[in-house]
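Try this one yourself first.
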């Protein structure tokens, strides 16, 4: 079985389909655009759920002077990610998002394509908010568009297009409301078929 079929959340990164590649380029471009809006210098970054390191490497290239950390619970993914880091100062290690603490404190906390997989996404959001980062970047699949596109290409038909390990489903409006429970949303963008949010700690 191909590796990306065992882990369907990696399929978007590994696909050679030109349409999928165009959407992925839009996803990475949106990361660059939103993080380019940050007015302060980013010296430290923590990515919660770094997987095989696709977003992590993009962060390394955007902020080459920053100290980058990434955590994930999948050790095989971490082995791949660690083999492709761009900087020897980047630290990628095994840890649950539910266990993050002062060690993960950073100017920028990133959590892309993770919250939809979690049994308790609100707890994860609370743990990240407790880090009091200057800025946060989140992304999740935009529903119902995500499932519609899967269904149209004949994927996961018996589940009406739902990627097998997706437990949580948000529209853009719903995800903004979710993040606003713990943080203040600064900007929201919709690179097809995702919702991406830049947020800050609550102003209260």
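Now uncover the answer:
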């Amino acid at each position: 079985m191909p590796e990306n079929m065992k882990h369907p959340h990696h399929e978007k990164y590994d696909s050679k389909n030109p349409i999928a590649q165009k959407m992925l380029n839009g996803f990475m471009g949106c990361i660059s655009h939103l993080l380019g809006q940050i007015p302060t210098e980013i010296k430290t970054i923590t990515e919660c759920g770094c997987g095989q390191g696709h977003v992590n490497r993009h962060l390394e290239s955007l902020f080459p002077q920053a100290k980058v950390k990434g955590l994930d619970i999948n050790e095989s993914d971490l082995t791949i990610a660690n083999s492709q880091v761009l900087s020897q100062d980047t630290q990628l290690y095994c840890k649950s998002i539910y266990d993050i603490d002062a060690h993960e404190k950073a100017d920028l906390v990133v959590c892309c394509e993770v919250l939809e997989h979690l049994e308790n996404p609100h707890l994860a959001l609370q743990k990240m908010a407790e880090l009091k980062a200057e800025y946060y970047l989140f992304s999740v699949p935009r529903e119902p568009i995500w499932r519609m596109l899967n269904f149209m290409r004949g994927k996961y038909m018996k589940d009406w297009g739902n990627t097998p390990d997706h437990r949580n489903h948000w529209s853009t409006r719903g995800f903004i409301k979710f993040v606003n429970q713990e943080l203040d949303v600064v900007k929201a963008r919709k690179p097809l078929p995702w919702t991406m949010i830049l947020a800050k700690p609550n102003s209260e």
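Discussion: The beta strands are 44-48, 67-72, 91-94, 108-112, 135-141, 183-189, 194-201. The domain at 44-142+169-201 is CATH 3.40.50.150 (Rossmann fold).
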